[in-house]
Amino acid sequence: MAINSLASALTISNAGTASSNTHSKVGYKLSSQEMNKLSGREVEPAQKEEVSSELPAHIRKMVEQLEKLKEQLELAKEQLAKLQALKNQEDEAVKVQVETQTKMVMEIQTQIMSLSQSISDALKEAGISDPGVLMSVLV
């Protein structure tokens, strides 16, 4: 009996040590900026300017508009989050504001998708088929 209790005590003790060892050996976690850079979603500003300068003027204007829409989307999402964080969600005025802001966010997202497709089509018409250019313009 004494051996069994000693064996179980050692097993419990070893299990606790093993789990604490695994918790202390946490690997390096990439930041979102590092992940974007590695995946190619983040383009260096100089490289992005170089790609933009090679594009036809009408496509550059479309890309500028896309960037403005993305900024508007971020602002609209922030505003929606603030409205949703309000404590008086039962108030009719707040409900209407949340609904209106949600519709605005969806409309901007639709505009972004439509403009992205138009940019893609314009690049094809201009004979630009390099996937790197396409990604740097649309992301």
From TrEMBL:
Residues 59-93 form a coiled coil. It comes from the Bacteria. Keywords: Coiled coil. Residues 39-51 have a biased composition (Basic and acidic residues). Residues 36-55 are annotated as: Disordered. This is Uncharacterized protein.
